[in-house]
């Protein structure tokens, strides 16, 4: 089941699906560059080939821990970076409070 297959289409669901696709595409690129197959990754991670297939599909169970385990198995590094919104972009709070405007000054967190 893919990330979006759960029926959600909120902004967070869409962003989560995009992030999962980006992460698995990046992992696939590293695997191809190293000449490592999904079966070999499964052995290195001590998981079933089916679990690697789930990870590579961007499955709803894709977690940071799963990505870290895959990276560890192939000697790679995972990097997650948050970027502040542009100075003039309004961030709409969920509780209906007034919008918050990004300062554009927040450093990227790693």
TrEMBL record:
- Judging by the UniProt lineage, the source's domain of life is Bacteria
Question: Its Gene Ontology molecular function terms?
Answer: DNA binding
Q: Which PROSITE patterns match?
A: HTH_CROC1
Which residue stretches belong to region Disordered? 87-110
User: The HTH cro/C1-type domain covers which part of the protein?
Assistant: 34-82
InterPro entries linked:
Cro/C1-type_HTH, Lambda_DNA-bd_dom_sf
UniProt-recorded name of the protein: HTH cro/C1-type domain-containing protein
């Amino acid at each position: 089941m893919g990330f979006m297959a759960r029926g959600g289409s909120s902004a967070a669901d869409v962003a989560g699906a995009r992030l999962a696709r980006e992460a698995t595409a990046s992992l696939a690129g590293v695997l191809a560059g190293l000449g490592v197959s999904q079966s070999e990754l499964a052995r290195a991670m001590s998981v079933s080939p089916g679990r690697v297939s789930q990870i590579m599909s961007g499955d709803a169970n894709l977690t940071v821990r799963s990505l870290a385990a895959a990276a560890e198995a192939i000697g790679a590094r995972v990097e997650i970076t948050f970027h502040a919104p542009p100075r003039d972009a309004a961030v709409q709070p969920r509780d209906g409070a007034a919008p918050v405007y990004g300062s554009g000054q927040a450093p990227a967190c790693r």
